Give the backbone structure.
Amino acid sequence: MLGPRWVYRNVTMALLQIERMGGLAGFGGAGAHVRSLGQLETDTLSPEHQRAVEDLFKPIGKSKATRICDGFRYRISRTLSGITETVEAPEEMVPAALTQCVKDELV
Amino acid sequence: MNPSKTVSHPRRSASRRDAANLLADPHPIGCQCFIIPADVLERFAGDKKLSAEQRKGFADAAKFEKEWRQQRLAQIKHIHAAQSILPTGLTAVGSAAAPPAILVDDCGHGNTLPGTPVRNPGKSPDATAKRAYVETSAVAEFYRSVFGRNSVNNAGMTLLSSIHYSVKYNNAFWNGSQMTYGDGDGNILIDFTKGNDVIAHELTHGVTQYTARFANVNQAGGLNESISDVFGSMFRQWQANQDVTQADWLIGKDIMGPGAIARGFTCLRDMSNPAAKHCMAPQPTTFSQYHDGMDPHYSSGIPNLAFYKAAMAVGGKSWVTVGRIWYQALTGFAPSPNMKMCVFANRTRSLAAGMFPAEAAVRSAIDHAWTAVGL
């Protein structure tokens, strides 16, 4: 069985691309003039945040409903060994290091 | 524990074990709440069998309780005054119940809810706290005096708002039990409490949660967001005593930052013209453009436009006729988490006929409005 250390070592090689979406202002929607993008490498994250990211990409976690109305959602793409996976998660499930790396801008 | 909050089932004969439990309860904020009677708090505050720390906690709570009751009495007077000038034919059916307590907490730019309680928020030197309190009180009054609704659950549920959430946070949200407001980044968007329609929008999510329970995805999500925009705009019009021709029908006009205004954006959304270029987030205008998976803040443009068209066709004050039909469509039926837009449209058509049987123009206005958006 593979433990957390295995997860930690593999995640350190990944690039994360993050987009903040939704909210009251409809970030990132079709035709929306406000976008919020960012990216970071997972080896810059704390082990705790790396594990949180890994949890987001677990199949069981891919259906992430929320009761929050107008809450932000984050589309997170992870490129690992040439393969890119994408998940969407509500803000409350996303580590602060990821939510803080995006920059809001008008387009 | 924050002793200023409320706990369920107060007992005037509470024991010291109860007292310790009250102090130890980390989650004292329930939905259905009663304040601990002042005499109980004062008795515990002077009970030398309790620790000094516990006695101090109860003494603080007793002091806050008095302030809270004074605030509440002032609210009741205000609401009675509002009810005395209700439009003819409207009654405030929930008026016998106590009005909701309005609380404001300050997150201090952190991300932990609810934050630290703001004492006397209506008189706070922090303009954001004062606005959150004043406008939330006004929205509660709007629901009570126009629709006879007592808070989001129609049973006087405490309305809690958290302000200064996170850092330069460009959002506001309803999390299932309270409202939360960011300060904006100061460029694209500014302090979200500056939008009276924003505050009504968020509070209305609570009303929807306790009534129709629309989901926040697909068609039900679009309706959920539209209901919040509709009642947000209606509140804005009611507060300014505007008729439908005077209303701006904009959502988020007052939270646009200088950077957005410089780019020509005057609002987040425009109910009268959802696809307009001056919207920061333009929307579809007909149901033919809809598909599942759309952001509900996008698909809400369709029912938003239908409400606008119906209100304009009927004329007068939006909340008097068309608003009442929308309110009844939202609150007068069993919960429908997966509501479809066409079902909601037909519901308002039926209600128009039932609520205003002598006014064919109302039925026609609503029918044509939905038809115009493809529903």
About this structure: The beta strands of chain B are 102-106, 116-117, 159-163, 172-174, 179-181, 250-251, 269-270. Residues 1-38, 67-95 of chain B have pLDDT under 50 and may be disordered. Chain B has three domains: 1-85, 88-194, 218-372.
